[in-house]
Amino acid sequence: MADMGEGGGGHEKGGKKRAKKGSTRVDMTPLVDLAFLLLTFFVMTSTFSKPKVMSLIYPAKPKDNQVVDDGPKINNAITFLLSENRIFYYEGEYYPIGNTKGKPATQLSETDFGPTGLRKLITEKNNYVLLNVKKYDAQFAKRMITDKERTELIKKAKENTKALKVLIKTDDKAVCKNFIDVIDELRIAQVGMMAPVDLMASEYELIKAKLK
Amino acid sequence: MAQIKGPKGTPTIDMTPMVDLAFLLVTFFMLTANFRSEEPVVIDTPSSIADLETPKNVVLITIDKGGRVFYGFTAGEDARVQVLKNMSAKYKVGFSPEQYKKFSTLSSFGCSVQQLPAYLNLSAEERKKTGFSIPNDSINNQLKDWINFGNIEGTAAGKLKYEEAADNDPDVEMNEFKPKFILKADGKALYTHVKNVIETFRDLDLNNLNFVTSLEAGTKLEKE
Fold this sequence. Notes:
The complex is a heterodimer of chains A (212) and B (224). With 212 residues, chain A is of the alpha/beta class. Chain A is 38% helix and 16% strand. In chain A, helix 5 links the parallel strand 5 and strand 6 (193-197). In chain A, helix 2 (115-125) crosses helix 5 and helix 3 (127-141) packs antiparallel against helix 4. Chain A is elongated. Mean pLDDT of chain A is 77; it is low at 1-13. Chain B has 224 residues and is of the alpha/beta class. Chain B has 7 helices and 7 strands. In chain B, strands 1-7-6-3-4-5 form a 6-stranded mixed sheet, with helices on one face. In chain B, strand 6, helix 7 and strand 7 (208-215) form a beta-alpha-beta unit. Classes of the chains: A alpha/beta (212), B alpha/beta (224). Strand 1 (52-57) of chain A pairs antiparallel with strand 2 (52-53) of chain B.
């Protein structure tokens, strides 16, 4: 054993016989083994980071007796149409082919989920809110407004008519990740108003034509 | 020449600080560990910048790659038994006391109420292989009932906890103790499956949903 050599020696002079002092040391090696075994076990079994959640508030469903109103006419809106790992969009209102208002039929544009595609697009569109948020942040840093006031002001800016409103429609091939990605980008671009909406049949036709 | 002799005997290292350190770490991990709960399926959640902590009192709906739906409820064992009793009364499916006990410890499950007694008798390994799902179509929407009962029992359990906490600290808010609704969907699950579940929640007027996401690596929220 590691510690047995120590203690006990060095008292032979003088002839007095004393009881041999036993070593008070304990060999710690097995204890260390055990400790590290337990350590490894707990490291392996514990989940380090709790998964994070993304809170999303959906608009309340209209009650049966309530008339569905289209809301105020959207002036700064963008509609995203999701298919499997593809993303299309159009701006403003949707005009089907041969509509009564005589507007040209809506065409879909395509973008991608990367920072140069989707993020660039919506940060440009939502410039109004982003500039305001920056302004309020600066004011807050100079202690001109309180944190609570800042939150209120940002909320107001997001509800302003100049702020971007986003509708998200998904087709039958879109996966959950696509949806979360879009929501995530909207968070980054401080888009306050967004709603997942059902896809219209004519829009589905447009996506199908694009996918070909 | 006199030779310098090294000390006789085997060299010893004092292990005490090492033991101290090791046990300190063991204690730390023991106290901070929250064990991975046994989950019926592996879910690969999409990533996002969201940084909200997962709440304690939740109704958790898991959607796997193939669109199978699972239900979990974390308001405590008594509340879980109560939820099952409600379901049992509504769908006229009987459960034995052992099955109630088993259900109270089950973290998450996925099968119809009719299949549940048999499902509870299976071992954890066998349950993973069943391929069952909770029906949530318009004809047979059992998920809706599970969520509804989960909400009722979760609110009741949350209220008890709130009253307990309010005795010590008058500043706590009831909102923190209410059940939250969490959707844990696989990134590859078709959105139509997810949408069905979301619509079920919205039918019950539960409009604030939380998506479980893993923290995105690298990209941080840009202020510019």
